[in-house]
Amino acid sequence: MAEQKLSTILSLHFLILSLYASSFAIAGRVVVPLLQSYEIPTFKSIFNVTVYDTSKYGILQLNNGLAQTPPMGWNSWNFFACNINETVIKETADALISTGLADLGYVYINIDDCWSSAKRNSEGQLVPDPKTFPSGIKSLADYVHRKGLKLGIYSDAGIFTCEVRPGSLFHEVDDANLFASWGVDYLKYDNCYNLGIEPKKRYPPMRDALNASGYTIFYSLCDWGVDDPALWAPKVGNSWRTTEDINDTWASMTTIADLNDKWAAYAGPGGWNDPDMLEVGNGGMSYQEYRAHFSIWALMKAPLLIGCDVRNMTAETFEILSNKEVIAVNQDPLGVQGRKVQVAGTDGCFQVWSGPLTGHQLVVALWNRCSKAATITAAWEVIGLESGTSVSVRDLWQHKEVAGDAASSFSSKVDPHDCHLYIFSPQAAYRSEI
């Protein structure tokens, strides 16, 4: 069924092939050249029909049936860095269950760097640090699996990890088989100490080893965007980092969003652009900034990997991370990455981002990256609706319909560094012409 579903979705993606258009100006607004139209022959549609280019999505070679939607879960690095141990991992798994986050889809518990001993054992195998993981990874995987969750682990496509633990370069088969024997479900594969070997040569051997291991493991490439992985990684992994590491600042988050946006055409079911993990709840940004962070990551179909201490979340952090309507945007089965479609204002800080969803709907974000409140407008010609289309608008943060019959455009006043996220539902009925 998974392969059939993937085939169906990919067929839809390739049906709506489109070329980039040239940039043009509408009343002083710069429209980003990533929208194109393609008339789907079996439907009379009030769309243009506007679709968002997916023509460069690669043919997945992993064939592991994973990542039909972006992965959701938690990773240890952003909050704990090297200060991890098996107790933290178990308590985090417990917290995902008790808070209900697991029920919302956050099922991966991913251990980042520093889980292993400083050296391989006499047989050349990786060994969990006996001080911090005395029970071993297999025992930890069993604990997580009993709760209906999945365990992720970390290694490096170099001779050492970034924290100078043993890497997996030239040990791919042994390490993949070891991870499989432990029941590991996810591998984050980093890029430190790589001996200057290009990523295109270092990352496929681990893909092949994972495929041959006999256990299905999500493969997350983390080469920091080196050599533009979106151009080749869809044939290698289930996700690929398009940027350097995120940090818990507004400047980092916005810069990374823009960098990831460039590669929107390459993402789709089976393989996703990865702008790095969520910083929501770590304290470096405001509530509005974190809400924007989560909104744009969801719209971009980014992996939603929580990076805070879920054992001690504030109510505001939980409110953001548990928004079912925003999560549903990220997990929409159409799997088209939303993107920036319009910029205006000083330095382009008044922005409209948008993307298609199943059911002929659109997700639309009005993002104010300026320092003053402003009214931002999404015009129909920008987001790809026919000019006469009537649209109902649902606010995903207020959880209510805010317009029943918007036509030609929709505007809202957005506070500084905030982001409003909407579902646009065209009201005209679709009729089959068959």
TrEMBL record:
Provide the family line: Belongs to the glycosyl hydrolase 27 family.
The alphabetized UniProt keywords are: Disulfide bond, Glycosidase, Hydrolase, Signal
Q: Which reactions does this protein catalyse? A: Hydrolysis of terminal, non-reducing alpha-D-galactose residues in alpha-D-galactosides, including galactose oligosaccharides, galactomannans and galactolipids
Q: Which InterPro entries match?
A: Aldolase_TIM, GH, Glyco_hydro_27, Glyco_hydro_27/36_CS, Glyco_hydro_b, Melibiase_C
EC number in record: 3.2.1.22
Taxonomically, which superkingdom?
A: Eukaryota
Under the heading CDD domains, the entry gives:
GH27
Q: Report the enzyme's class at the first EC level.
A: hydrolase
Gene3D superfamilies xref list: Aldolase class I, Golgi alpha-mannosidase II
Q: What is the lineage of its organism?
A: Eukaryota, Viridiplantae, Streptophyta, Embryophyta, Tracheophyta
Q: Which BP terms does GO give this entry?
A: carbohydrate metabolic process
What is the official name of this protein in its record? Answer: Alpha-galactosidase
Question: What residues does the Alpha galactosidase C-terminal domain cover?
Answer: 347-423
Q: Name one GO molecular function term.
A: alpha-galactosidase activity
| Stored Pfam families | Melibiase_2, Melibiase_C
